[in-house]
Amino acid sequence: MAYNTELSDRIREALLDLPRVEEKEMFGGMCFMVNDKMCVGVMKDEMMCRIDPAMKEVLLEKEGCRPMTMGGKTMNGYVLVAEEGMKTKKAFDYWIALCLEFNPLAKASKKSKRS
């Protein structure tokens, strides 16, 4: 399952000046970890945004935004944004800012213990 590398490049450029950014391929796409936490990424042709779950309903009203589902389960605190929701630089920057704003509040996933 390929993902939109142009979108990945846009996100990479937006995060360029931040410390502690790591790229990881996951979910068949690209995820950008900020401070060891999932922050923003690309799934197919959509931007995956980790957002404050309390804002979800308001954000779902925005053009191109939909809930993120995996295996039939809706992922709380994540939305997907299609191209029409981030065509302009202003709209794209809005979603990046939301992800970065929530990042300090987001919980890091538990590190797997390797024997």
Query: Separation of termini?
Result: 31 Å
CATH class: Alpha Beta
Q: What would the average pLDDT be, to the nearest integer?
A: 93
Q: Which structural class best describes the helix and strand composition? A: alpha+beta
Secondary structure blueprint with pairings:
Layout: H1 5-14, E1 21-26, E2 29-34, E3 37-43, E4 46-50, H2 56-59, E5 65-70, E6 73-81, H3 89-102
Antiparallel strand pairs: 1-2, 2-3, 3-4, 4-6, 5-6
Describe the protein in words.
- The longest helix is centred in the last third of the chain and has 14 residues, at 89-102.
- The protein has 115 residues and is of the alpha+beta class.
- The protein has one domain (5-102): Aspartate Aminotransferase, domain 1 (Alpha-Beta Complex).
- It is built from 3 helices and 6 strands.
- The mean pLDDT is 93.
- Strands 1-2-3-4-6-5 form a 6-stranded antiparallel sheet, covered by helices on one side.
Give me some keywords for this one.
single chain; alpha+beta; Aspartate Aminotransferase, domain 1; six-stranded antiparallel sheet; 3 helices; 6 strands; globular
Quick description:
By secondary structure, the protein is α+β, with helices and mostly antiparallel strands. It has helices at residues 5-14, 56-59, 89-102; strands at 21-26, 29-34, 37-43, 46-50, 65-70, 73-81.
